[in-house]
Specification:
This protein is mainly α. Helix content is 63%, strand content 3%. It contains nine helices and three strands, in the order H-E-H-H-E-E-H-H-H-H-H-H.
Length: 253
């Protein structure tokens, strides 16, 4: 017997659309969000718009500026530093967990994922690159089976999206990223979890440097640990999303 999929509420749908517009850059940092205009454009009342903005505010995507109203929050370089510190510890750990729980068809799934990502790079479809990139990491989290990692990274990826589009404008950077993904998978499927974790850490550090360069911040992460003794030393739980968050939506403002 299959479970019934509950339809999304107006608040959830509104939140998804606004989040996608913010993360894609359609709604720029500092842009004022007029609830009446949004409600009219989405053909809903003010109530779901106000509720959706409250959810986005709780996650740091919008800011309430008093009389000036609600605006899209600026990209916070310090917050991104924290996110990438978290990723540096957690994503290699997720790979280690994944190595212990690989499904029987892991190779088929991984090869399809790598093909999808490389095809997106060759096509020049920037949005497809980003969607495939998020899907690759989500695949690792799911294989690891740790729901706390899955839920916390689902929220973090929404913030990461805001700068990734800028980073991936360079096709060569996108290609390098998928080459790094390939090395992670080769080590993982080859049974070398330590190497897979180290390759993931290298990948996250490289992404961090590119992201901060796009923000005009030269910050870099600490040097790599000795690969023979590598293990995540910190687990900082940012907590699960406190409201509806979706990776993508076809609806636009």
């Amino acid at each position: 017997m299959e479970s019934i999929n509950q339809p999304k509420t107006l608040v959830e749908q509104t939140c998804e659309i606004l989040l996608d517009a913010i993360c894609s850059g359609e709604l720029a940092a500092g842009e004022r969000l007029n609830q009446d205009e949004i409600a009219t454009r989405l053909n809903v009342s003010r109530q779901p718009v106000n509720s959706a903005l409250s959810v986005l505010k709780s996650h740091g995507f919008v800011t309430d500026n008093g009389r000036r109203g609600v605006t899209v929050a600026p990209i916070d370089a310090e917050q991104f530093q924290y996110i990438y510190e978290y990723r540096t510890a957690i994503e290699p750990f997720a790979v280690t967990l994944a190595a212990k729980n690989l499904p029987d068809n892991a190779e088929t799934i991984a090869q399809e994922m790598l093909k999808k990502g490389n095809d997106a790079v060759r096509s020049g479809d920037q949005k497809a690159w980003l969607v495939a990139d998020m899907a690759f990491h989500e695949m690792i989290y799911q294989w690891g089976g740790n729901t706390v990692i899955q839920s916390s990274m689902r929220l973090n990826w929404q913030h990461i999206r805001r700068t990734m589009a800028e980073v991936l404008k360079d096709v060569s950077a996108a290609k390098v990223s998928w080459d790094e993904h390939t090395r992670i998978i080769q080590a993982l499927l080859g049974g070398d979890s330590d190497k897979a974790a180290l390759e993931m850490r290298k990948h996250i550090e490289a992404a961090h440097k590119k992201t901060f360069a796009s923000l005009g911040n030269p910050h870099i992460l600490p040097p790599l640990s000795d690969s023979s003794n590598f293990s995540p030393r910190r687990f900082v739980d940012l907590g699960p999303p406190r409201g509806p968050v979706a990776i993508q939506t076809n609806k636009r403002l």
